[in-house]
C-alpha cells in the first residue's frame, strides 16, 4: 500500500500545484503533518540533546532540497517521467557509496545501470535520444539529492542513536521552515492557495499529507519490525511501477513505443541493480549491527523510494 500511495503522489502533486505554487503547497502539506507527528514523538523529542537537534536540522535542509527539486520537477514533466526518473536513486546511491568506501560493485550492477540510463533516454524523448526537459532534469537532480540525504543520514554521528520518529519530525520541520521562508520571499501565500482549493484539490492535499507521509512512515516503521528490511525494500521497490500505472492509466499519458520500451528498461534496470547490491548491503548491515550492540529500529532507507 505504501508503494501504491507513493506511486500516486506524483499524480497528486501534478494536479494541485504548478511552478508558482509549489512552495505554498509544500507548507500546507507538511503543516498538516507536523502537529500529528510531533505529538507522537513528543517524549523522544524532549530527550534529545543539542547535537541531535543540530544534526537533524542539517539533514532537514538536505531533505528540503530533495522535495523542492522533486516537486518543481514533477509539475514540469509528466507523472510517468517523474516516477521513473526518481527511481534512478536506486542506481545512483550504490554508485556513490561505492566511490566513498572504495569498494567494487558486482558486474551485474554496471549492466543494470546502463539499462536504466538507456531507459531514461528513450522515455524522455518522443523520438528516442533527445535532450531532457527542465522538469526531467530537476527530478534527476532530486534523485542525486536523495542519495546525498541517505549518505548523510548514515554518516552523521550525532543522530546515529536518535529515535527515528523524533529524527523524522526534526527533518520535516527543518524542511518546512525552508519552504515557509521561500514562500514568504516569493510572495507565494499558503493561505491564499488553501482558499483557492476546491474539494478535489483538498482531497489530493490530504492524500499527500496523511497517506503519502504519515501513513507511509508509520507503516514502514511497523513493517521493518514485523518482517525484515530486505522484504520491505523489495515491496517498496515497486513504487516506479505504480507511478507508471497512475501516469498512463489515470493521467492519460501515452508514451510511444520507444517510451514504453524505456519504461520497461528503467523498471528492469533499477530492480536488477537493487537486487545485485542487496547481498553486499545485507552483509554490511550485519557487520555494523554486530559491532554496534543492540539493533535499532529505523525506517527503510529513503534512497530506495520515498514518493514525492
Give the structure's gist in a few sentences.
This protein has one domain (2-292). The chain is 77% helix and 0% strand.
Question: How would you describe the overall organization of this protein?
Answer:
Helices cover 77% and strands 0% of the residues. It contains 14 helices and no strands. It has helices at 2-16, 22-40, 42-46, 50-74, 79-85, 89-101, 107-123, 134-155, 164-186, 190-196, 199-226, 229-236, 239-250, 257-292. The model is unreliable at 284-305 (pLDDT under 50).
Layout of strands and helices, then pairs:
Elements: H1 2-16, H2 22-40, H3 42-46, H4 50-74, H5 79-85, H6 89-101, H7 107-123, H8 134-155, H9 164-186, H10 190-196, H11 199-226, H12 229-236, H13 239-250, H14 257-292
Helix pairs in contact: 1-5, 1-11, 1-13, 2-9, 2-10, 2-11, 4-8, 4-9, 5-13, 6-8, 7-14
Helix-strand category = mainly alpha
Largest sheet: none
Distance between the termini: 15 Å
The low-pLDDT segments are: 284-305
Number of helical runs? 14
Mean pLDDT: 82
Overall shape: it is globular
**Beta-strand content estimate:** under 5%
Supply the number of structural domains. Answer: 1
Radius of gyration: 19 Å
The H/E string reads HHHHHHHHHHHHHH
Q: Please count the beta strands (DSSP E, at least 2 residues each).
A: 0
Percent of residues in helical segments? over 70%
Amino acid at each position: 500500500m505504501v508503494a501504491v500511495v507513493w506511486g500516486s503522489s506524483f499524480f497528486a502533486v501534478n494536479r494541485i500545484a504548478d511552478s508558482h505554487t509549489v512552495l505554498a503547497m509544500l507548507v500546507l502539506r507538511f503543516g498538516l503533518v507536523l502537529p500529528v507527528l510531533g505529538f507522537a514523538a513528543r517524549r523522544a523529542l524532549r530527550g534529545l540533546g543539542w547535537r541531535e537537534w543540530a544534526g537533524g536540522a542539517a539533514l532537514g535542509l538536505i531533505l528540503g532540497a530533495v522535495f523542492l527539486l522533486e516537486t518543481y520537477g514533477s509539475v514540469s514533466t509528466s507523472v510517468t517521467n517523474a516516477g521513473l526518473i526518481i527511481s534512478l536513486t536506486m542506481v545512483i546511491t550504490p554508485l556513490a557509496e561505492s566511490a566513498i568506501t572504495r569498494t567494487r560493485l558486482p558486474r551485474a550492477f554496471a549492466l543494470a545501470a546502463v539499462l536504466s540510463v538507456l531507459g531514461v533516454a528513450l522515455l524522455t524523448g518522443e523520438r528516442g535520444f533527445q535532450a531532457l526537459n527542465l522538469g526531467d532534469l530537476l527530478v534527476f537532480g532530486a534523485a542525486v539529492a536523495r542519495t546525498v540525504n541517505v549518505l548523510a543520514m548514515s554518516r552523521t554521528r550525532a543522530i546515529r542513536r536518535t529515535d527515528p520518529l523524533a529524527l523524522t519530525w526534526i527533518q520535516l520541520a527543518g524542511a518546512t521552515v525552508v519552504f515557509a521562508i521561500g514562500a514568504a520571499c516569493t510572495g507565494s501565500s499558503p493561505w491564499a492557495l488553501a482558499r483557492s482549493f476546491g474539494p478535489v484539490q483538498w482531497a489530493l492535499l490530504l492524500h499527500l499529507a496523511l497517506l503519502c507521509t504519515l501513513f507511509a512512515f508509520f507503516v514502514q516503521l511497523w513493517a521493518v519490525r514485523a518482517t525484515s528490511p530486505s522484504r520491505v525494500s523489495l515491496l517498496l521497490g515497486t513504487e516506479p511501477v505504480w507511478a507508471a500505472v497512475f501516469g498512463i492509466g489515470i493521467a492519460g499519458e501515452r508514451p510511444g513505443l520507444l517510451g514504453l520500451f524505456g519504461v520497461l528498461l528503467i523498471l528492469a534496470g533499477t530492480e536488477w541493480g537493487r537486487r545485485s547490491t542487496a547481498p553486499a548491503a545485507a552483509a554490511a548491515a550485519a557487520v555494523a549491527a554486530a559491532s554496534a550492540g543492540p539493533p535499532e529500529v529505523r525506517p527503510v532507507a529513503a534512497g530506495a523510494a520515498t514518493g514525492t
